[in-house]
Amino acid sequence: MKLKPLKQWFCDACDEVIEKPEDGWVYWSKDRDERGAVFGKVHSFHVVHKFRASPKRAGLEPRESPHVSCYPPNIDQDTDLVLMLGPSGIIRLLSHMDVGMHFDAAGDEILRVKDVRNWTETFRRLHLPYYEQARRHFKQAREEGRLEGEHETSLYNERTLRALVDEYGKNDRSKRAVDAATKKKRFFKADSNAYAYVVARDADHALQILASAGEQEDPDALLELSAEHAARIEIDHLPIGTCLTAEDFGFPPRNN
Fold it and tell me: Which residues lie across from 77 on neighbouring strands?
């Protein structure tokens, strides 16, 4: 699988492909003061699916389970992926580095970026052709000696990046495709305190997912569902690692 350069990306939340710019969203954070007010330098840029395009919402109605999506509910700043592309996107990203002499003659607002590496990575993902897919293979290419002779600028040339995609990218698969190919996706219902549905590799993995979600569960109350049952309640499309609680289905929490 090869991405269309500067038109498709891998989602940071679900690792599925963002099929077109209109399906994408970019969000980031700002430092907060002791009172919790947003201020200061930006950091933690992410590229994810827009709410309506999130694979996690497949089969859900627009108003159903509003917290099920590819980005967290409490975001400091965000915008359409489309607005972060092309010349306008370059302007927006560079404004975090320096708003320019006209607005900041004294240079007090220069470098409003806390994590320069994260900002630079985001810039390259959105503006260098083939970088989004090639970057997934830098480690393997380096270990195999494929990057010998490259330097800090040649590595990011379109020719170099495209060659890496041609060599390594043909076997790229999204998380959903890997799940399907390995047939490791299993479905569980946790029916004691959590009352949750979990998509996992096995029962132990399901218990780990529940713990990560802050749910307590008795292993003896973990019931594995058939694929047919999972399809009937419309959770068969969800990726491994998903945990849906009663609230996600619109029911009040269950208390024992």
Answer: 28
Distance CA 14, CA 106 (A): 43
Element of type H or E holding 186: strand 186-190
Residue-wise pLDDT for 188-233, tens only, equals 888 765 578 899 988 888 888 888 777 766 777 788 998 888 887 8
> What integer is the mean pLDDT of 3-16?
94
Evaluate whether 207 touches 219 at the Cβ level (below 8 Å). yes
Of the candidates 224, 240, 88, the residue with the CA atom closest to the CA atom of residue 175: 240
How far does Cα 249 stand from its chain's mean position? 23
By DSSP bridging, strand 38-49 and strand 196-200 are unpaired
Token pair recorded at residue 52: 């309506």
pLDDT of residue 144 exceeding 90, the answer is yes
Residue with tokens 């810039």: 123
